[in-house]
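README: folding subset

This subset contains proteins for which both the sequence and a predicted structure token string are available. Records are stored as plain text. Below is the entry for Polyisoprenoid-binding protein YceI (196 residues), shown exactly as it appears on disk.
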Amino acid sequence: MKLKIASLALLFIAAAATAFKAPSFKGDTYKVDVQKSSITWTGKKFAGSHNGTIDLKSGSLGFNGKKLAEGNFTIDMTSLKDADKSANLENHLKSDDFFGSSKFPTSTFVIKKVTGGSGNTVNVSGDLTIKGVTQAISFPATLAWNGNTVTATADKIVVDRTKYGIKFKSKTVFTDIGDKFIYDEFELSVKLTATK
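--- output ---
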């Protein structure tokens, strides 16, 4: 009797483990070539703007046929560069006033939902994590195919830095800052090349 009860208990545990197992992706996975991919950023202040680059550390896109279904990306926050090669600006952006890259060396983006647009354009929604804070964002992206390689481009991803605790010289936080403010929103332009 004890053996029968033990067998039933093991069977129940095995069934429960199978029932609660996350479904695995059934489509095709495309690995992002970080050397052929790029991320550029633009930040604006009252007196002008700055722009530069940041490196993608790793990434993948999942497709069902040619329909984008998922994606995971890791961004190297320590690679942040200013186009004007200002070491002072780069160091400040990496400091705790902004991205705190020594404590948070990576940011991530995980695709949660993709809806169809017109032609090869889709609307991507997902979770962006910066400085350990995760927020939902959405943006349009364009897909272009060449055999087993796909290029995904998002020309304007708008991110509100204050939602990630980055409040330095924010006019919405420091209302008496006058014209020394930095706009809350910065923009990312992303081009990914991935191969099956």
